[in-house]
């Protein structure tokens, strides 16, 4: 199964490079579709359940890590609340599909332990390199650090929900300071 997971990851990298090199609107939907369909096709059960405890874990870790970051950034930049459209796209097309693939599928397959967290975080940040190369997003490699938090949340809870909450809130925070 590890070999198939690595092939799926390699395929994702190809799709990501193509989607950045040839920015057709269809690619905006192809990537999240790929991220959510691959685990299903490979018959991997994704650990996702709504649990108040896990929701609080995701929100609590988000508050602990993102609140100080927000306060520090707020002294240097203006925060603008992203539009409802951007917020919805973040949860449906970015945070949830990426967490399903990277934590629920890859981390679960490669090892839901500290080594797996670091390896999948490296893979996650590498998947953001096309944004750097084609879009000039100098922050793309820094996705490694929040990915460690998302990986640790998944490792601790074995549920994609807390890492999705953190991922979503981190993305909204980042976008709010970038728009």
Indicate the overall shape.
globular
Low-confidence stretches: none
Kindly give the count of domains.
1
* Alpha-carbon distance between the two ends: 41 Å
Tally of helical segments: 8
Largest sheet: none
Q: Averaging pLDDT over every residue, what do you get?
A: 93
Count the strands?
Answer: 0
Task: From the alpha carbons, calculate the radius of gyration and give it in angstroms.
Answer: 16 Å
Helix content: over 70%
What is the string of SSEs from the N terminus onward? HHHHHHHH
In percent terms, what proportion of residues is strand? under 5%
Structural class: mainly alpha
Keywords, separated by commas or semicolons:
mainly alpha
Compose a concise summary of this entry:
By secondary structure, the protein is mostly helical. The chain has helices spanning 2-21, 25-41, 52-74, 84-110, 114-127, 129-135, 144-157, 160-178.
Q: How does the SSE layout of this entry go?
A:
Layout: H1 2-21, H2 25-41, H3 52-74, H4 84-110, H5 114-127, H6 129-135, H7 144-157, H8 160-178
Helix pairs in contact: 1-2, 1-4, 1-6, 2-4, 3-8, 4-5, 4-7, 4-8, 5-7, 7-8
